[in-house]
Design a protein that fits this description.
Distance between the termini: 54 Å
Number of helices: 10
CATH topology of the largest domain: Undecaprenyl pyrophosphate synthetase
Shape: globular
CATH architecture of the largest domain: 3-Layer(aba) Sandwich
Number of domains: 2
Low-confidence stretches: none
Order of helices and strands: HHEHHEHEHEHHHEEH
Mean pLDDT: 89
Length: 288
């Protein structure tokens, strides 16, 4: 490394330490306190605005940026960012109920991420299990119906029990439909759907020569994880990444996409309403 490059690296490191230090956190807290009334007024006005126009019936969110938010906030515990992200989900549910959005799908954990070793992934799996337990016991003023998407056979036993309990205890609820992708991969979903379709066709006693003609878009869709549910109208990704990373590759074909730089734990109702407003300003053509 050259002397100049080393100087730049040292300067950037100092800036990073200052940005995460107690003085910077105090300044951010003071700024939030001062701006809170303005934020509340603007949020209220924007909520009224979006309520006057057609709303998406199904919103999907890629919950990204937990680790980076924790780092920028000076938090060092392995699961601190993920716990903050889990807490934020309660707010998202409240926002959707307020707007009468009927279905929400969130991506909490990719299957590829489960290959990570160490305290962080263990903490994340524990956070998800505890969150599912809490959501399954949520009071009936928010009667969620929970469905978990992904290969649950790959999940740890404790998490799998939480998944099964949350789905069982909320199955009869008629409120917000909350789909949580855990250990999810879009490629896995398509592979699983094809396998299930081929198995069902084989069990039907059809001649092998007929099987290919029976594989259609509708028959394949009937074996997806969210079979029978409407596709998401809007997919939101937080944290600044502008890709779907394999999230809902089939169901998201005609979804409107919205990307924001805000880390998921810092995502506000105002940010959510801006995504909804952006959706309302677009002309949906569904490929036509």
């Amino acid at each position: 490394m050259s002397i100049g490059a080393g100087h730049v690296a040292d300067r950037d490191a100092r800036r990073d330490r200052l940005a995460r230090g107690p003085l910077a956190r105090a300044v951010r807290s003071l700024r939030s306190f001062v701006l809170a009334p303005v934020y509340g007024l603007y949020t209220h006005r924007l909520r009224d605005e979006v309520l006057r126009r057609p709303l998406p019936g199904h919103v999907a969110v890629i919950l990204d940026g937990n680790r980076r938010w924790a780092s920028s906030s000076g938090l060092r515990e392995p699961g601190a960012g993920h716990q903050a992200g889990a807490d934020k989900l309660d707010e998202l549910i409240e926002w959707c109920v307020r707007l009468d959005i009927g279905q929400v799908t969130v991506w909490a954990l990719a299957r590829e991420n489960m290959a990570r070793a160490g305290e962080e992934i263990d903490a994340l799996l524990d956070v998800i299990a505890r969150k599912l337990d809490a959501l399954g016991a949520m009071p009936l003023e928010h009667p969620l119906r929970i469905r978990v998407l992904g290969r649950r056979e790959d999940l740890p036993d404790d998490l799998r029990r939480s998944v099964e309990s949350a789905e069982r205890t909320t199955a009869a609820n008629d409120g917000l439909r909350l789909n949580i992708a855990v250990g999810y991969s879009g490629r896995d979903e398509l592979v699983d759907a094809v396998r299930a379709l081929v198995a069902s066709l084989a069990d039907s006693g059809r001649a092998p020569s007929e099987l290919a003609g029976l594989i259609t878009a509708d028959s394949l869709a009937a074996h997806l994880y969210m079979a029978g549910e409407p596709d998401p109208d809007l997919i939101i990704r937080t944290s600044g990444e502008q890709r779907l990373s394999g999230f809902l590759p089939w169901q998201g074909t005609h979804s409107e996409l919205y990307f924001t730089d805000v880390f998921w734990p810092a995502f506000r109702e105002l940010d959510f309403l801006r995504a909804i407003r952006s959706f309302q300003q677009r002309e949906r053509r569904f490929g036509r």
